[in-house]
């Protein structure tokens, strides 16, 4: 990424942050000659479990693979429906389709860009087999009001916590609340393996099931315990294991995760302070005290969003949009329905550059450019105000 305007680079919307010892860790693994699933992967799993305060974690190749396997473990398949917000990365939806099930798209709260228990409840049908809250921005989603109902109806919760590694909910880590929780460790996530993912299983038998499914259905070395001349293919499976090379990167990242957490919270709070008095710009809240922020999202009036986006890019600032709604994507048109809050906020949101390489000076540069871009559009200040927080779809 070349930087147009600043030495440390506010230009990138998101980028991996390396601590310096990842290269040595990869070198060490390269020399062992063990590149597939291996001891390094097992060690990463144990360290993730310790970090989250859970009994076990199953590492996989990507966050998408984690979602796919978790849905299968929840018994999701053809004929089933999975409730999912439209405002998520398309991977959430593709994972549902990969099981043969159908997505049932729901709206989000414009103040948080997360689903609420109410949104999910109104979308439940007799075909619902699982619900997939997306922890947008890293913020936990509280399903307490509908937990009993979900349990009674045998509906599983598969959390898309791709943004939320390290975040807290009710004093515990996301992942430690008894749901099937899925993380992503892709290049732009707060903890990266280059590519990687993980599932928190609900019980030991489920962990075994997931471990077989990620290794082409073969009984895992852990289960086999002895070396034999054969292997046993017990169930259908996928080539979804996490390679030792990626696990080695993740292990280094995990030892520095507290610093990353502090840095991301500092950045988000700095943005919040700097944006507080910028007319026409509303910051999407993410409960920073409990969240490891994944991104920094603002809403500007829909009538000027695209122009502001273009002006920022012209200034060398790669603002992004997370996400174009899935119910409006051609691939998912069959399941499209009217989602007024999602459609309204999707035309207002902009993700500002957000990564630990960002300096305070970069941040000031971004906010100054944003304020200038918005105020260059008088419409932004005088009409078409952004939807007020907490009032879905009010225009
Ligand atoms: C990153 C991401 C995924 C997919 O994770 P990968 O590791 O890229 O496969 C799924 N859902 C959301 C919300 C994401 O941000």
**Largest sheet report:** 7 strands, mixed
In CATH terms, the superfamily of the largest domain is Type I PLP-dependent aspartate aminotransferase-like (Major domain)
User: Shape, please?
Assistant: globular
The helicity comes to: 25-40%
Average pLDDT, all residues: 92
By secondary-structure content and strand pairing, the structural class works out as alpha/beta
Low-confidence stretches: 1-7, 383-395
CATH topology of the largest domain, anyone? Answer: Aspartate Aminotransferase, domain 2
Q: Which secondary structure elements does this structure contain, and how are they paired or packed?
A:
Blueprint: H1 22-32, H2 39-52, E1 58-60, H3 63-73, E2 81-85, H4 90-98, E3 102-106, H5 117-123, E4 128-131, H6 147-152, E5 156-160, E6 168-169, E7 172-173, E8 180-184, E9 197-200, H7 204-214, H8 221-224, H9 244-255, H10 257-275, E10 282-283, E11 296-299, H11 302-314, H12 340-346, E12 349-352, H13 360-375, H14 378-382
Parallel strand pairs: 2-3, 2-4, 4-5, 5-8
Antiparallel strand pairs: 1-9, 6-7, 8-9, 10-11, 11-12
Helix pairs in contact: 1-9, 2-9, 3-4, 3-7, 10-13, 11-13
The structure holds pyridoxal-5'-phosphate.
Please tell me about this protein's structure.
- The chain has a 7-stranded mixed beta sheet.
- It folds into 2 domains: 22-255, Aspartate Aminotransferase, domain 2, CATH 3.40.640; 257-383, Alpha-Beta Complex (Aspartate Aminotransferase, domain 1), CATH 3.90.1150.
- 37% of the residues lie in helices and 11% in strands.
- It has helices at 22-32, 39-52, 63-73, 90-98, 117-123, 147-152, 204-214, 221-224, 244-255, 257-275, 302-314, 340-346, 360-375, 378-382, and strands spanning 58-60, 81-85, 102-106, 128-131, 156-160, 168-169, 172-173, 180-184, 197-200, 282-283, 296-299, 349-352.
- Mean pLDDT is 92; it is low at 1-7 and 383-395.
- The protein is built from 14 helices and 12 strands.
- By secondary structure, it is an alpha/beta fold.
- The protein binds pyridoxal-5'-phosphate.
- The site of pyridoxal-5'-phosphate has 14 residues, from helix 3 and helix 4.
């Amino acid at each position: 990424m070349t930087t147009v305007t600043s030495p440390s680079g506010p230009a990138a919307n998101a980028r991996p942050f390396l601590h310096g010892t990842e290269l040595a860790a990869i070198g060490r693994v390269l020399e062992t000659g063990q590149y597939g699933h291996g001891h390094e992967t097992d060690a990463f799993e144990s360290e993730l479990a310790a970090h989250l305060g859970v009994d076990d974690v199953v590492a996989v190749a990507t966050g998408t693979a984690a979602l796919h396997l978790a849905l299968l473990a929840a018994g999701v398949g053809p004929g089933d429906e999975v409730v999912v917000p439209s405002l998520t990365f398309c991977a959430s939806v593709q994972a549902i389709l990969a099981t043969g099930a159908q997505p049932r798209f729901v709206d989000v709260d414009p103040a948080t860009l997360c689903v609420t228990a109410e949104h999910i409840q109104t979308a439940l049908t007799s075909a619902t087999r699982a619900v997939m809250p997306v922890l947008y921005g890293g913020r936990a989603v509280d399903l307490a009001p509908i937990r009993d109902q979900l349990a009674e109806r045998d509906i599983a919760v598969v959390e898309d916590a791709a943004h939320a590694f390290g975040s807290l909910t009710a004093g515990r880590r996301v992942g430690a609340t008894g749901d099937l929780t899925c993380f992503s460790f892709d290049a732009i996530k707060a903890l990266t393996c280059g590519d990687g993912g993980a599932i928190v299983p609900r019980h030991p038998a489920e962990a075994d099931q997931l471990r077989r499914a990620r290794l082409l259905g073969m009984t895992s070395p852990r289960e086999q315990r002895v070396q034999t001349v054969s292997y046993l293919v017990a169930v259908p499976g996928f080539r979804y294991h996490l390679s030792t090379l990626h696990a080695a990167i993740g292990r280094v990242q995990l030892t520095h995760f507290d610093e990353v957490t502090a840095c991301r919270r500092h950045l988000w709070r700095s943005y919040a302070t700097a944006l507080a008095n910028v007319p026409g710009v509303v910051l999407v809240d993410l409960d920073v005290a409990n969240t490891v922020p994944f991104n920094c999202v603002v809403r500007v009036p829909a009538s000027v969003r695209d122009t502001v986006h273009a002006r920022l890019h012209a200034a060398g600032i790669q603002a992004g949009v997370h996400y174009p709604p899935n119910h409006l994507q051609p691939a998912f048109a069959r399941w499209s329905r009217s989602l007024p809050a999602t459609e309204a906020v999707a035309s207002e949101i902009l993700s500002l550059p957000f990564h630990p390489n960002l300096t305070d000076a970069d941040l000031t540069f971004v906010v100054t450019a944003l304020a200038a871009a918005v105020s260059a559009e008088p419409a932004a200040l005088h009409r078409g105000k952004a939807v007020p927080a907490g009032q879905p779809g009010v225009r």
